[in-house]
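Human: If only I could read C-alpha cells as easily as an amino acid sequence. Take your time, and here it is.
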Amino acid sequence: MSLISFIRNAGASIFGGSEAKAAPAGELKKELDKHGLDHSDVKIEVDGDKVKVSGTAKSTEEAEKIAVALGNTVGVGTVQNDIKPAKADPESRFTTVVSGDTLWAIAEREYGKGKGDKYNVIFEANRPMLTNPDKIYPGQVLRIPPLS
C-alpha cells in the first residue's frame, strides 16, 4: 500500500518506546486494542523507528486506521503499510497537523476553499483515534479520505 511518515516525538507514549525507537510489536498491538482495531490477521515488525505492518484487514479504511494508530506513537518515524484489504476502497491521503490547525482549516486545505464544513468527514475517518474534533495536536497524522 504505502509508506507513511510521522514525527517521532509526537503521539502516544507507549511502554518500551522512546523518541529514538518505536515500542516493541507487542506493545503496539496493545495500542491497536485500545482503539478497538482488529489486528488478528496483521503482523507488526519493528526496526528502530520503522514499523512494517502486513497481513489482511476487512477494508482499506481499517488498514489505514491501523497504520495511523501505530504511527501516531512516540518513536515511530515511518510505517510501511503492506496490509491487503479484503474490500478495496479508494485510498486516503494523509496530512500532518501543524500548530494552529483545526479540522475546519485542514478540510479547507485538503478539499478546497469553501469546504471547511467537510471537517466532520475527516473527524469520522480518524475515529476512534480522535474522540473530539477539537482535540488534534501538532505532529499528528490524519487520514484524509476522498469525498464521495
Observations:
- The chain is about 25% helix and 25% strand.
- The domain at 93-144 is CATH 3.10.350.10 (Membrane-bound Lytic Murein Transglycosylase D; Chain A).
- Helices lie at 25-34, 60-71, 103-111, 119-125.
- The radius of gyration is 15 Å.
